[in-house]
Each structure stands twice: as structure tokens, then as C-alpha cells.
Amino acid sequence: MKQLALIIDLNVCVGCHACVTSCKEWNTSGWAGPLSDFNPYNTDPTGTFFNRVQTFEIGTFPNTETVHFPKSCLHCEEPPCVPVCPTGASYKREEDGIVLVDYDKCIGCKYCSWACPYGAREVDQQQKVMKKCTLCVDRIYDQTLPESERKPACVLACPTNARLFGDVHDSDSEVSQLIRENGGYQLMPEWGTNPANHYLPRRKTRLKIHEDELQRSDNPLKKEGVLPEPPKEQQTLDDIYMSW
Amino acid sequence: MHPAFSVIFLTTLIGVGQGLFLALYSGQIYSMMNLLPGQDSQSFYAIGTLLALLFLAAGLVASFFHLGRPMRGWRSISQWRTSWLSREIIVLGITLFLILLYGVAHYLAWTQPILILGETYPIDLSLAIGTLAMFSTFALFISTGMIYACIKFLQEWHSPFTVINFILFGAASGFTLAAAFSAVIGSDVVVFYATWAILLTFAAFFTRTASLIRNSNLKPKSNLQTAIGVRHTVIAQKAQGAMCGSFNTREFFHGSSLSKLKIVKTIFLIFVFPIPIGLLLAAAYGFFPIEFSIMAFIIQYLGLIAERWYFFTEAKHPQNLYYQSVS
Lengths: 244, 327
Ligand code: SF4
Ligand code: SF4
Ligand code: SF4
Fold this sequence. Notes:
The structure holds two protein chains of two kinds.
Chain A (H helix, E strand, L loop, with lengths): L3 E6 L8 H11 L8 E2 L7 E2 L3 E8 L6 E8 L17 E3 L6 E3 L9 H4 L7 E3 L4 E3 L5 H4 L12 H5 L5 E5 L6 H8 L16 E3 L36 H7 L1
Parallel strand pairs in A: 1-11
Antiparallel strand pairs in A: 1-10, 2-3, 4-5, 6-7, 8-9
Chain B lengths: L4 H28 L8 H24 L19 H24 L5 E5 L3 E4 H25 L10 H25 L5 H27 L7 H5 L6 E5 L7 H5 L6 H15 L1 H11 L4 H26 L13
Antiparallel strand pairs in B: 1-2
Helix pairs in contact in B: 1-2, 1-4, 1-5, 1-11, 2-3, 3-4, 4-5, 5-6, 5-11, 6-10, 9-11, 10-11
């Protein structure tokens, strides 16, 4: 069974918000109607977004690290938001695991947003229905687009390749390999939602050098004065290896 | 969570309506067993049922203000297999219908015994309908409570106390209203209803206090570490992705100061429990039974509004971890 998902690589996300704006642009121009904004050029602007980039500071100054953290619907494999919906407007597609809202059925009761622990759903204040990331379902299957563009808008927009798109149930897919090899993890695993989207952690490559590796334990030319020179008749490690 | 008045009125008003019906029905059971003097079908049961229906209908109207698209509300009966909200709406409809039928049965005086139970207890049609309506009323209490109790990461709500408190608060306020109603129409069952109202209020006091204690000792399962998946004890949000708030900051934060929460909690603890108990006691002993029992109901109902408001502010949604600071 296919489960499409996004992989967010926190190691390379620079917090540029390109995914936020391209997501907004694509989804406000689609057939489902605009993602409404209120007071966009005034005080207190607010509006509906499917994707937000947040910033966290880890640690205490001066030992701090900044983590930019993009957050959109995680297309959970056990989505708690779906069974609670009284109308069936919220559903998870069998064929590719995308969690969607049918805007023509939604009554705007907001119950599903209560049932999402990640705050991934937002009510459109103008259309009065619940909205959320569609995994760009209207892009990824669009035969009129060139093959290379049949990807979510946010993935195409990311300048650092921090967003990757693919089937996390296919073990050989690029995203599955990344999750496997680079420590991909899920958010709030404690609720058993089993999010399809995974995050790749900040990664550092460190070389571990032990103290004794800085001293040469064996010194064939016996030139350094640190170690006392062994008596001539004593066998050294080299002699043993040579004798083989 | 942000307390929405539509939902506060919905849950408290239908609670009163359900409780009042339960009071009328238990009165009828007691009369059938000859433990209470029988009441007139039309002036007592039919009018009382009408009053209960008014409260239920008012709650239904309040609920529509919660919906963004109320005209599509009929769609909400489709997912009864999985959704407690869907179940609540269906059971609310059934309950309204059965209680209406109960009122009609009394109004048309369908009270000739249709069978005699154990040769002493006459069962008539109104009682049979009432029994069905009683089961439906309890199913409605359970569905309403489960809407809140079934969301496991709202830990404050995810407990049997939520359902028990909905039942006891509804029943207590309904019996209080029944005492006031019977006092107003000059019926002789004021003491019966006042006594039960006091007992139910006491019971609600114990379960609500227990849930308050439980909630104050809860340890949140989610924290910033699990929310963003970084293993460090010091994590501070620097930006939430929106400068002036979003649906996430409006729907899930109560936005009230600690002192306001304390005041509301004190108000509901005083208005729901001791004052109505005192007034009902006085009414039961014959001091101004009409005035005191009406006052008991009004004060208890106001207290219940405060209680439900506080119930919403108690619940801490894990999504709030992602919305800790603007920038
Ligand atoms: S992230 Fe939230 S909205 Fe998306 S599938 Fe999971 S629970 Fe549902
Ligand atoms: S807001 Fe819409 S999608 Fe969400 S639970 Fe209500 S009807 Fe379903
Ligand atoms: S997949 Fe599409 S809808 Fe979802 S965050 Fe990316 S651009 Fe927005």
C-alpha cells in the first residue's frame, strides 16, 4: 500500500519560508477557492496557511543552536482527526494515504482540529470550512504538468532541498532510504498517530579520537624521546609481525 | 481550549432538559409504585415535558452557532460508526422525539394501564414511552460526554469523570428545575424533587472535585522535546510562523489570566453547590418554596455556565507547544 509523505530535513532547512509562500500561492490559486486572508496589508493580518515555518532555539547562550522547523499536516497513518468527523468530510485516501477534507461536505464544526495533536488544521474564516495540507494532490497527479513538476509546490520551492516527497512504504524509495540511514523520526510518537511525514535530525559528523591514539604506542624508528628506548634484545611488536 | 459560548450553552441547556425529563419520569415511577401522590397528566407531566423540550430545543439552537456551515448540518448523521459527535446528533434527535411523544402521551392522557407488572404496578403507554426516552436520555449524556472524553491527548477530558460529571450536572439542574416547576404549579412533590436535587448536587460535587484534583496532578505526555524531536532540556520558541495569530492561537488558548480562572472556578464552586443546596433545603422545609427553588435553579444554572467555561480552559491541547511565542 502506498503512503505518500514529505520528509523534512532539519539539517539543511535555513528557515527561508519559501515553502510557506509557494504553498500559499499554489493552494490559493486552485480550483478549491482561495485560502482567505484578513487584513493582509493592515494591522493584525491573519489568514489560512497549510504550512508554517517555526523557529526554535536549543540550549543556553552561548551554546545555542537555531532549528527552523517547517510544520504541515503529517498525513498520519492512524489519523485521529478522521474518525471524529461527523460528516465524513475528513478522510484518508486508500490509494495513497493522503488525508483530505471534502470542502463541500464539511460543516465547520472544528472537531477534527481538536483531534489533531499537531495543530495542522486551520479553519478558513471566509469559507467556514476546515482546511489543511493536501499534499498537493492537485499537482502530483496532473498529467498536463511535466513529470519533473508533479511534486508538491513546497518541495519544488525549497532552495536547500530540505523537503523531499515520496512513498514511505516503498523501502527502496529515496525517502525511505533517507529515513533509514539518516535517523528519520516522527513527531509526538506518544499518541500512536504514526505520522507518515518524517523529520531528519540535525546531524554532525564527528571523528572520535581516543587519547592513546595521539601517542604512537609503537615507534619503529625509535627516534622520539618520549618513550624510553627498549633494550635491543627485547622484541617489539614489529618483530613479531615480521616473523610471520 | 478556548471556551465557545455556543458549546457552553448547548451542553448546559440540553443537560437541564434531559435532567428535567428524568425528574418527571422518576416522579411517575414513584407514583406508579404508590410512593408519591399521582400527578395530573396534563397540568403536570405535559407542561413539564414542554418545559424540558424548550430547554433541549434552545440547546439545539445554540449548537448551530458553533457550526461554520449550519445548513449542511444534516450531513453530520452519517458517521455514527466512528464519531461521537455524529452519535450525539442522532441521539439528540431521537431523544427530542421520544420526549415529545412522552409529553403527547400525557397530554392525550394515554394513561390506562396496558399491563400490570407483578399484579401491583400498572404500566401505561406514557410510562412505556418514558422508559424508552429515559434510555435515550442517558445515551445522549454519554454521547455528549464522550465527544470530549474520547480525545486522548486532551488528558484533562480523557477520563470517565467527564461523562459522569455531564450526567450528574444535568440531572442535578434538571431536578432543581423540577422542584421549582412543581412549586410554581402548586404540586405536592416539591420535597421529593428538592431532596433528589440536593443528593445529586452532592454527588456532582464529589465527582467534580475529584476531577479537579485529578487534573491538577496530571503530567502532560507531550513536551517540546517530543513535539519537535530534539533531545535537549532547554528549548525556546523564537517564531511561530505568524506575527498576529492564527486559527491555532485563537481556538486552542483560553487567553485568560490565572486570576480570572481562579475567580471563575470559585464562582462555579459556590454557585453550583452550596447556594442551591441551601436554597433547596429551605424550600423543602417550606420557606418560600416558590421563590427559593426558582432562585436555586437560576443560580445553579449560572454556576453551570461558569463550570463549563472552566471545563474548556482546563484542557491543555498539545498543539499549544508549537505556539508559545510570536517572535
Ligand atoms: S497531522 Fe493532524 S491533521 Fe494531519 S493527519 Fe495527522 S492528525 Fe490529521
Ligand atoms: S470541521 Fe469539517 S472536516 Fe472537521 S470534523 Fe467538522 S465536518 Fe469534519
Ligand atoms: S504539500 Fe502542498 S499543500 Fe502541503 S505544505 Fe506542501 S505545498 Fe502546501
